[in-house]
User: Fold these one by one.
Assistant:
Number 1:
Amino acid sequence: MKRITIRDVSVKAGVSTAAVSYVLNGREGKVSPETVLKVRRAAEELNYIPDFSARSLVNNKSKLIGVVIPQTEDRKQLLLQNPFYSELICGIEARLRQSGYHMILSGVEKGEGYLDTSMQRNLDGAIITGIYQESFYEDLKKVRMPIVLIDSYIYDSHFHVVGIDDELGGYMATKHFIDNGHTNIALVTGLIRKDGVVEKRFLGYKRALKEAGLFYHPDYVFEHSVTYEYGQEAAHLIAAKHPEITAVFATSDLMAMGVMRGLRDAGKQVPEHVSVIGFDDISVARMSTPPLTTIMQDTIARGITAADRLLTAIGNTDGELPAEPTIMPLTLVDRDTVRKLT
Amino acid sequence: MKRITIRDVSVKAGVSTAAVSYVLNGREGKVSPETVLKVRRAAEELNYIPDFSARSLVNNKSKLIGVVIPQTEDRKQLLLQNPFYSELICGIEARLRQSGYHMILSGVEKGEGYLDTSMQRNLDGAIITGIYQESFYEDLKKVRMPIVLIDSYIYDSHFHVVGIDDELGGYMATKHFIDNGHTNIALVTGLIRKDGVVEKRFLGYKRALKEAGLFYHPDYVFEHSVTYEYGQEAAHLIAAKHPEITAVFATSDLMAMGVMRGLRDAGKQVPEHVSVIGFDDISVARMSTPPLTTIMQDTIARGITAADRLLTAIGNTDGELPAEPTIMPLTLVDRDTVRKLT
DNA sequence: GCCTGTTAGTTAATCGATTAAACCATAATG
DNA sequence: CATTATGGTTTAATCGATTAACTAACAGGC
């Protein structure tokens, strides 16, 4: 089955390829109504489908968006096991498709940059999730396409940011514990990196403590990787060394699930002995036993918004308007893992 | 920042673009060692990155693979909420990247085909998950690229299949119940469609019953959508109308999780009152309470295998060797949701 | 009748690669 | 010495679009 080209259409319609191109791209002001009809019919009958590579070559628009997802440390696999990213992708894909764009989903090799991919594929834009080294972002700035960051707070006119108020989220969770009478509150979290979301949540945690006149115990903070396994491990530590702790704020639902398992391993009931709050409200949060109280963000909506913002940035060829971050709302979903201590 | 082209490299190296192309594509037999060196150096210094669109145009190879994921019924979103697909994608992406390929991840509009995308983007191959209407596959056959199917059993020389022995899986689960003394075994499943994976699991279920001399009760089969919610609903029905049922085989872990919740809602303990077995062993299976007994398949490995098979098919330009399906192994992971009735 | 403007359409250059074919030394062969 | 290989390199066509520049025809305006 040979490819149908614009040439074939032009021959069938009895006009030049230029005319076909004009018609098919909506520059109809330049073409008479009857020609438009002839071309339309010919294209239809031949079932003509344009070649995006050829297009991309001449006008530098590929209709391709790069989406970068963080990877597991050990292997070279995407971190999709955290449903947060899956949901994000659902949103992104839906919005992109709506506008005829496609998504190239990939991870980034450790130490490698993203410049290669972006140039090879002539990407029109990119959505970057996860947190990387400084040099990675420096590289990205050299690229001339719009970029939306999801997980990091780099306020730079080169980058768009679609985020949430992570500090507030951390505050809300901690405050909720305090309001329910808890005073010994642990934090279980991924690595706290500068300008990362986790750092902000950590700051919110501290603010709530301070505001309530509670001490901040550095040894109540359990900081490592954002995994179920680490949550479990942290819970073991808490149960063994800090029996006074009655509440655990995990900065990710995945970790919160692990914490709950770990506590149960150690013979502690949730929420009777220890209360737990998570973050994100991924779909499994409501499936857990007991259903997890968590800070909810509408991740799909966030994906849609990120894609939306990227697309409008791509549309605006008139210079680079520096980007004011978009902040999505948060809600505390009060399920069954927080006990009221009166 | 203007693009560095092969022309720039050729000028800097003082040779023709053809020479540069030969060097950079490894046809070094045609070029003298010193030219190779000059070109290498020039390309390096200019940081030359080839344009895949241009390449694709001339030799019809885009190094792009289409990956299709099913969508939710109502909205237009990908079905990534089922971690099965996320894991598959992890595997696929890892393998593709290793060979310099990229993945275009998308859903398919209801009723639409995939021909457009495949032609527009000049895809080198595709991995199709999910089950679609007959016409969709007919369309796919017209395309000249290799295709790997993941969720359907269409044995046709046009398609490669990387599957599991679903019938056996269904049999294993049911047999496990029977071996533990259960006789009233329900099946909770997605829509049973011809040539789909679910149908095979259903057949395995029936075979195990028959082999054990047990009756097959059509009203023990709860068939609807592959969601947590439906699992929950089915469990309610079971608890209300069929108190004699002591075991539930759910053809997806997601549904199994819902079943467990539903049983608990209805005041039934798992596994004390009712036992449950799932399918897939998605990561949340081990996180559930109690940890779910399930039929394990290594989904990441399956993704890797699918990509691998696709890549070799792409490599083999020597005619279309019809495809013998690849069958991945299954294991029953015996966790804590099956009770022994002695 | 001459000039200008408008409309509809075509021609041909261009994007950035690849590659068959041509070219040209120089070496080997009869 | 004429002829044929051979190895290294360049020339130029090609892939499938887009689009600036051009042409031709015709309508008005003076």
Number 2:
Amino acid sequence: MSDLQTPVSLLIADDHQMIIDGIKSMLSGERHFVVNGEANNGEDAWSRIAADPGRCQVLLTDISMPLMSGTELCRKVKEQYPHIKVLFLSMYNSTAVVKEAVLAEADGYILKNTGKDELLSALHRISQDGTYFSQEIVPLLYRQYHKEQQQSAETAQLSAREKEVLALIVKECTSEEIAQKLFISKKTVDTHRAHLLEKSKARSTVGLVRFAIKNGLAEW
Amino acid sequence: MSDLQTPVSLLIADDHQMIIDGIKSMLSGERHFVVNGEANNGEDAWSRIAADPGRCQVLLTDISMPLMSGTELCRKVKEQYPHIKVLFLSMYNSTAVVKEAVLAEADGYILKNTGKDELLSALHRISQDGTYFSQEIVPLLYRQYHKEQQQSAETAQLSAREKEVLALIVKECTSEEIAQKLFISKKTVDTHRAHLLEKSKARSTVGLVRFAIKNGLAEW
DNA sequence: GGTAAAATCAGTATAAATACCGACAGGATT
DNA sequence: AATCCTGTCGGTATTTATACTGATTTTACC
């Protein structure tokens, strides 16, 4: 994929400029990698890739970003330009988020609280057609893999409708209001709430909100 | 405070190692500043400062960290070692968080989505006995200053007890449970809740949770 | 020593959420 | 054909939260 003469080109997408600048500084001494693009949101990143797909070999992206999330960005990239490798940079190590990333066909996933060395390891592995997942999240993947078809699901896979209801709950809507907005009965909303409580193992609406936040299921 | 011969020594506290490494990389070319200490939580940072107060001239710290928050760390530092400058690095630009920082006698406050240039400007200003607050948060400070004594207070200043109750609400406790934990009547908890709803302008408990998150009033 | 805010508690009433029960239609899967 | 999941509703009952009004004590501050 790359030799010493032609470094691997990177595109960094993160809404925190400090992270971008930090990574650029870290890699400034590296001859194997060169950052030749940056974006502060998913849509911007997508435009840059679409404008010149050959310019970017590895996409280093945050999960939660404005306009377009990292996972959505990843999906689009993998669909259109499967040659581009995607490495996620995330704050969260929750099972659901990791699972989302894997389903989006990510090549790697590292946490922001890891250091320079691990970043370089990840980039090396990924640019050589490998994958790299932080040590902290490997157990999550393992557990996920082995419990996938059990309904125990501490992670819970919510249906589309349930996610819709949850998003409105987080927006401070009452069941009545949600019913009106979705053109369904309040009773149906209650049923969805009950299922959400089960799947998220929450005790109350507050728990649902926490669940939504941790799993990136609501706009913030 | 410093000349070209003796660079300004920095201590960085952030639970995201990547931020620390990023800043170190950014400053590696700078002769004016030298990072000679790092910590991943507030307590660790405090230990390092207490161990050798002369080693650190500027403390660069995150707001939300495990064990001890950045604001608490700042308070202790300013109380014991007022010569140490404190620059906050934060994800949030909410009025309440900024106010907390200012009340803790911070010398500066910059957002993580700002870049290398602004970081250097901030460090220069602060190390020369000045202050530096990100452009984005200046309006917040201004507004805060002028609306301080009005009860309109879109930010709301919660009492210690109210914060205590709010923290438990976010932890999925019911009013009953909160009452038991704080050894007060459920009725009193209800009163606190009512005041919290007023001050936060929330419609329900969900709104309180959002408020707590946005203002960094609950552990996450 | 007065004033203001905070913290405490009570009563009453309504609104909202949760816990159960049961049901049925449609779609996908086996 | 049988099964499972999703989405859709209804009834009933209980628990929790919210909206009022009003009150006392403590604390802090001027």
